[in-house]
Design goal:
This protein has 291 residues and is of the alpha/beta class.
């Protein structure tokens, strides 16, 4: 399956997440099938990310947005975990602090954009400022509406000025599957720490969030920073789809390791000379032991 073609939000298209199927999983009906395929994709992803780090001409920004329990942390663990920590970083954005709130909404975001050679992952992002703020009416409509254009301009800046490729993933989970995952957290001591007081309160705004996502995706899916809608009821498919889109995107960059900056023939001569000296030392040490 061409995940990119299947799941991309084409610029200018209409989005209706209430009509979207979060349980879609293509041919990967079984979790184990998707997990098996994911292993190969992660290996390819790791190789490509290390090559991008060495190439040092490109950077990649991955944005993860979605409702609670859609799997943002799961994608970080199962997909981003396949990358080398050197050259890859994950940053989350929660409610702004008092100091952050005193600046424009992108002020706290920009320092975490990736440098050349780096991958940056936003686990929640600047889109919180057109989603949460809208749903809970924290700011006037005229303020959050202006932010779509500001976001597009900022993402264009990254793409044009720093050669940053941007991939944005909207993780879509059904209301029924979300409740099931909340129940699993209650029963699993290893995941109880993820339980929040707002989990069930936010469910009251489920449809409002879908409406907010609709407009955000419609207004900000662009050629330089496309959105992808990822069905998340099947965790294996979710991880495989995201990993494949990222790997295919890196593959298309035609990444190259840089040429050595040293004289390899000279280094080989030095190596062989050092190896010969070590061999002579070992011979001398063995002879003394016999004596």
């Amino acid at each position: 399956m061409n995940y990119r073609k299947k799941l991309i939000v084409e610029p200018g298209s209409k989005v209706r997440l209430k009509q979207f199927d979060p349980a879609f999983h293509g041919k990967d009906a079984a979790e184990q099938d998707a997990d098996k395929e994911l292993g190969g994709v992660k290996a390819r992803l790791g190789d490509l990310q290390r090559k991008m780090y060495g190439d040092n001409r490109h950077s990649l920004l991955i944005v993860l947005q979605g409702l609670d329990a859609a799997g943002k942390d799961g994608v970080c663990w199962h997909v981003i975990g396949g990358m080398d920590p050197q050259g890859c970083k994950v940053q989350g954005f929660k409610a702004p602090t008092a100091a952050e709130a005193g600046h424009d909404f992108l002020w706290r975001i920009h320092p975490h954009a990736p440098a050349r050679g780096e991958v940056a992952v936003f686990n929640r992002s600047h889109y919180e400022d057109v989603l949460v703020t809208r749903v809970h009416k924290l700011i006037p409509r005229k303020v959050w509406e202006r932010r779509y254009d500001l976001i597009n301009e900022w993402e264009r800046l990254l793409a044009v000025e720093n050669g940053t490729t941007i991939l944005k993933f909207c993780l879509v989970v059904s209301k029924e599957e979300q409740l099931k995952r909340f129940a699993e957290r209650l029963d699993d001591p290893n995941r109880q720490w993820k339980i929040s007081d707002s989990d069930y309160k936010e469910r009251e705004f489920f449809d409002d969030y879908l409406d907010a996502f609709d407009e955000a995706l419609e207004r900000t899916s662009t050629e330089q920073a496309p959105w992808f809608t990822i069905p998340c009821d099947h965790k294996g498919f979710r991880n495989l789809a995201v990993a494949t889109i990222v790997a295919d995107t890196l593959e298309a960059m035609d990444l190259q390791y840089p040429k050595p900056t040293v004289d390899l023939d000279q280094i080989r001569q030095e190596y062989h000379a050092a190896a010969a000296q070590e061999k002579e030392k070992e011979k001398g040490s063995g002879k003394r032991k016999k004596d």
